[in-house]
Amino acid sequence: MERFRVIGGARLCGTVKVSGAKNSALKLMAASLLAPGKSTITNLPDIADVEYMAELLTRLGCEVSINKDKSSVTIDVPEKIAHRADYDLVRKLRASINVLGPLVTRVGEAEVALPGGDAIGSRGLDFHINGLTDMGAKVHSEHGYVIAEAPNGLTGAAITLEFPSVGATENIMTAATLAKGVTTIENAAREPDVVDLGEFLIAMGAKIKGLGSHSIEITGVAKLNPTTHATLPDRIVAGTWAFAAAMTQGDITIENGRADHLELPLDKLVAAGAVVTTTENGFRVKMDRRPTAVDIATLPYPGFPTDLQPMVITLNAIADGTSLVTENVFEGRFMFVNELLRLGAKIQVDGHHAAITGIDQLSAAPVAATDIRAGAGLVLAALVSDGETIIEDAFHIDRGYPDFAAQLKALGADVSRI
Length: 418
Ligand code: UD1
Known about the structure:
- The protein is of the alpha/beta class.
- The chain contains 14 helices and 26 strands.
- A 4-stranded mixed sheet has the order 23-25-1-26. Strands 2-15-17-16 form a 4-stranded mixed sheet. A 4-stranded mixed sheet has the order 4-5-3-14, covered by helices on one side.
- The protein starts with a strand and ends with a strand.
- 53% of the residues are buried.
- The structure holds uridine-diphosphate-N-acetylglucosamine.
- Residues 8-407 form the Enolpyruvate transferase domain.
- It is found in: Cytoplasm.
- Keywords: Cell cycle, Cell division, Cell shape, Cell wall biogenesis/degradation, Cytoplasm, Peptidoglycan synthesis, Transferase.
- Belongs to the EPSP synthase family. MurA subfamily.
C-alpha cells in the first residue's frame, strides 16, 4: 500500500497547472453512451477513476481508447449496448451510477450495482430513483443492484428534488434528453460540473434550458449525435492549492484555475488574510502571515463546497482564533477530524458542527486518508506540522489529485511516496 511521507515547514511557492475535473470527466464519459458513434473528451485528469470508467464503458460494448498522455479519450459507442454495470467496478467509483440515466433512456433497461464510493456518510439514490419513476421507469433493487425498466421509453415529467443533488440532477437530465416531451427539474443542482455535462449534451443535440439555475428544462429529442468536448478545470483541486498557499504562507499561481467557480472559498481566504489576484489564465494566492480563523457552512453550489471542508478545517486548526465549521451536505465528513486530532489539532465535533481553536503548529504523526478530500486535507496538515508525517492509504488522494506529490515537490514541499 502506497503512503505519502511529508516533512512539514516549507512555504509553497510557484505555479501549478490544474487539469480537468474528475467529477466532470467521469460524467461526460458516462453520457457518451447516449449517442452511437465516436465521442471524444479532452482535458482529462490522469487518475485511476478514468480508467475504471473506461473499463465500465468497454464492458457495455464500447471501444474506448485513451491517448498516450492520458489527456483525452475517444469512446466509440455501438448501436446496441449492454445494460449491466457490475459491482466489482461500480464499487470502485461512485460516478458509475451516472450510467443509469443514459442506459435506461437509450436501451430501455439498466442494472447498476449500488455504489460504495467515499466513506463520507450515507449517499442515497432515492432522488435518482424517484425522478426516473416519475418519467415512467419501473425501478426496484435486487441483490445489490438497482434495476430500471422502461421498454417503451421514458416520458417527460415535472420533477422537484428534495435537495439539489448533483448526481440526481445529472441522471435525470441525461435520461430526459431522449424522453418523449418536456422534463423540468426544480431545485436542480447548479454546480459547474452539472453545467459542463449539460453543455456536452447540448453539443450532442439535446434541448436544455436553464443550466446553472435552480430550474432546468429538457425537451426530449429522438436521437443524439457524438461530439467532442473539453472537460472544465477542477475547481476542487484549484481550491486545494489556494488553501495550501494560504496555510503555508506561500505564493501559488494556479494556472487554469477558475476563480469564478470558487467565489466563496476565495472570499474566505481573503478574510483569512490572503491576497487573491486573477492572472491571465488563472489566479494567484499569496499569504505572508498566519491565517485568521474563518467560520464556514458547506452548502450546494454556489455555497461553500463540502469537498473543500477538510481544507478549511485544517486551515482553521493552525489559524489565529476560534471558528465554527458546519457541514450541511454529507454527515460523515467529519471522520477525518479524528486524524487531525492525532496531529494535535484542537477540534470539538458536535453533530454537524466542528468548533476549532487554532494552535501555532501541528505535531507530525502517522495518519490515514479516509477519502479523497480528507486525504488532501491531511497532506496540507502535514505541510504545517513539525517533523515527518506518514499518510496511509494514499490511493484515496490519487483518485482526485493527479501527480500530487510531484506538484507539491515542484512548489518546494518535502514530499515523497513510499
Ligand atoms: C457529488 C460529488 C461529490 C460532492 C457532492 C456534493 C461526484 C462523483 N461526487 O456527489 O464529490 O461532494 O456532489 O457537491 O460528482 N442524497 C440523497 N438521495 C439521493 C441523492 C443524494 O439523500 O438520491 C443526499 C446525499 O446523501 C448527500 C446530499 O444529498 O447528503 C448531496 O449529494 P449529491 O449532491 O447527490 O452528491 P453526489 O452526486 O453523490
